[in-house]
Amino acid sequence: MRLRRTAALLLLPLLAAVGCGSGTTPAAGPPPTAPSAAAPSSSAAPSSGAPDRPSDATSMICNPYFRQELAGALGTDIAQPLAPTWEKRVYSCEYRYARGSMTLSVKELPDAATALAQYDGLRGSAGAVTDLNGLGEAAYKRADGTTVVRKDSFVLTVDVAKLPETFGTPPRSRADVAVMTATTVMICWQEHSS
Q1: 168: left (phi over 0), alpha (psi -120 to 50) or beta
Q2: Of 14, 88, 162, 191, whose CB has the highest number of CB atoms within 10 Å?
Q3: Under 8 Å CB-to-CB from 22, ≥6 apart: which residues?
């Protein structure tokens, strides 16, 4: 019950703040050149276009609009530019702040069943975990606060092990930062599926 209440309290400011690139240009710099994000769908292949690039939904986690939304949600912005990588169907970028960093990654799988197997494997090797209800199709957080979410044929990981115990403005536990970040991704994916 307490976990559900905490998740609901975390969602309220995000619902008001998240726009996920609804057509506004980030405060600094030109409009992003990354493709617009689309929500993952179990009926769509995880990669749109050539297999040598991530899907639009996956690439959203490192685009300028999402970075701006996340900065608003956490009350702090990155200190260094994002440098996304795409290797072995994992798209990843490190959000480097003045006081630590977190890594967002999405593993694209061929279908929902393979994503479930990937998620279950990660969960099984994570040690003691706490289930998070209402986030994606399944989610948990590890002892270090890192959050893993399964949605359709995607597995999202928000690794906060390199953040201090409290982070952001106002200060939150790094576990709450991970859940807020994962929730922001899920809201953006949902927003773009409408």
Answers
A1: left
A2: 14
A3: 191
Q: Contact 37/20 with Cβ under 8 angstroms?
A: yes
What is the length of the chain?
Answer: 194
Angle between helices 2-17 and 174-193 (to 10 degrees): 60
Q: What pLDDT digit, counting tens, does each position of 103-115 carry?
A: 999 999 999 999 9
Both tokens assigned to 66: 């999402």
Q: Exposure pattern of 88-119 as b/e (b: 16+ CB <10 Å)?
A: eeebbbbbbbeebbbbbbbbbbeebeebbebb
Of 10, 14, 8, the residue nearest 188 (C-alpha): 14
Pull the structure tokens for residue 94: 């490190």
Position of tokens 């057509």? 23
Burial 22-58 (b: 16+ CB within 10 A, else e): eeeebeeeeebebbebbbbbeeeebbeeeeeebbbbb
